[in-house]
Design goal:
Layout: H1 13-44, H2 47-68, H3 71-84, H4 88-125, H5 144-159, H6 163-188, H7 194-217, H8 222-226, H9 233-264, H10 270-281, H11 286-304, H12 308-344, H13 352-367, H14 369-377, H15 381-406, H16 408-433
Helix pairs in contact: 1-6, 1-10, 1-11, 1-12, 2-5, 2-7, 2-9, 2-10, 3-4, 3-5, 3-9, 3-11, 4-5, 5-6, 5-7, 6-7, 9-10, 9-15, 9-16, 10-12, 11-12, 11-14, 12-13, 13-16, 14-15, 14-16, 15-16
């Protein structure tokens, strides 16, 4: 019997479901590897050094979108449709447009990074600042182009409907290679510090990008190479800019609390402690991110080709699995949270109250991920940008008020407040502007 969700524009529903299940297992593997990576760092480094490495990773994440200006998300919007319809002329023009933006952004990044390090050397040489005043994150500028390349190649792979490898390369390989390199370095040489950890992470990015390029080389059809260039730069630029602001909002909102704790906190170990809390709570996003690799590229085509029943059916499954997983993970963290924190560093166990408060905000936030995804990819990106702007503003204001007084617990209050507000706001906008869909069961 023919599946009623099969049509000429999309793969069969069973294929999407299979990819989603495979993606969940990959995200579980990614969580285990990322958790192991952070656990290894926390045990090999001091609490302050562990915090510095996490600040460096946060800086890379924030700077990367400025290099590609939303090109990776534009690839999800446009390339998926081009490849579905075998419109290789537009696909070829789009990839050429991305390549030019990437190389220009890389040159600018290298120039700014080189200038920053040169200025640092001059300031230290003439005793204007002391060497400890300069944060190690400045030495990570050379990693940013590779991080951008990885995001672009991940988006292109997803546009080919290669969701499994897309998830694997972006979420698994980078931390796996980083962990292997750090472990080999620490066991063979024995001297590990913040700078060595940054070097290992950078090499891991390079290896991942090379493997992605090799994989895509064998996936691109011959018809693509024979096609002529067709370009719609204005349309691509408009969408990429909108998605850039949204993506930047996501990254700032996910890293700003850690950075503000570094700037305003009075306890040196708090940044490492909060990084451990975020690592433990990252399991809460496992199912929503796993499904996003399949869901996000299909939202725009579903609206374009009026396949909203197909999309609604898939959203219901996503929400059911996500809610079940969140309940399970919340109970595990609530019961064993103190022991989990102690695995990173014995002194981290004292932050159990901050872990539980952060858990409340994270749980509510990831209960409603589909509403934010639909807003972002169904033509309401400005609304999503507005929501994220409010979220960042809440984080900044509350961080400035609460961190100087309450340190780690203050940042937990700020994060939970911001996540609850923006989650409800996203659901409200979906209910108001996208009446054809119920992004969270009956709502």
């Amino acid at each position: 019997m023919k599946d009623k969700y099969v049509n000429t524009h999309f793969p069969p529903f069973k294929v999407l479901l299979k990819n989603s299940i495979a993606s969940i297992f990959l995200m579980l593997a990614a969580f285990i590897i990322n958790y192991s990576f952070n656990l290894l760092l926390a045990r090999l480094l001091t609490a302050k050094e562990y915090g510095d490495v996490n600040i460096t990773i946060a800086v890379i994440m924030i700077c990367t979108p400025f290099l590609i200006v939303g090109a990776n998300y534009a690839a999800m919007v446009f390339l998926s449709g081009y490849f579905i319809n075998k419109d290789y002329s537009h696909a070829k023009g789009f990839l050429l447009w991305i390549k030019k933006r990437f190389f220009l952004g890389s040159l600018i990044t290298i120039f700014i990074g080189s200038f920053g390090i040169s200025l640092e050397i001059v300031l230290i040489k003439y005793n204007i600042v002391n060497a400890p005043f300069i944060h190690p994150a400045i030495f990570s500028f050379w990693i940013i182009p590779f991080s951008a390349a990885m995001l672009i190649l991940t988006a292109i792979t997803a546009a080919f409907q290669e969701y499994i490898f897309s998830s694997f390369s972006n979420k698994v390989l980078i931390y796996l290679f980083s962990m292997i390199l750090i472990y080999v370095w620490s066991t063979s040489i024995g001297i590990l510090n913040t700078y060595v950890a940054i070097l290992c992470i950078g090499i891991a990015y390079i290896i991942t990008v090379i493997l992605q390029l090799i994989y895509l080389f064998f996936k691109i059809p011959e018809s693509y190479y024979k096609a002529k260039f067709l370009r719609e730069d204005k349309s691509w630029k408009s969408v990429s800019l909108q998605l850039f602001y949204t993506r930047l909002g996501y990254l700032i909102s996910s890293t700003i609390n850690l950075i503000m704790l570094e700037v305003l906190g009075t306890h040196k170990a708090d940044v490492g402690n909060f990084a451990a809390i975020l690592t433990i709570l990252s399991v809460m996003q496992l199912t929503s991110i796993a499904f996003s690799f399949v869901l996000e590229p299909m939202i725009k085509p579903c609206f374009t080709y009026n396949r909203l029943k197909f999309l609604q059916y898939f959203l219901n499954i996503v929400n059911a699995v996500n809610v079940s997983a969140l309940i399970l993970f919340s109970l595990i963290i609530a019961i064993f949270g103190k022991e989990l924190l102690a695995h990173f560093n014995p002194i981290f166990a004292n932050a159990y109250d901050s872990l539980i408060l952060s858990l409340i905000g994270i749980t509510i936030y990831f209960l409603l991920p589909t509403s934010r995804a639909v807003l972002n990819f169904a033509g309401y990106t400005p609304k999503m940008t507005k929501i994220l702007s409010y979220q960042v503003a809440i984080f900044l204001v509350l961080d400035c008020i609460l961190i100087p007084r309450y340190n780690l617990f203050g940042v937990a209050i700020a994060m939970t407040s911001g996540y609850i507000f923006t989650s409800l706001m996203g659901l409200f906008y979906c209910k108001k502007y996208i009446k054809q869909l119920k992004t969270f069961f009956i709502i």
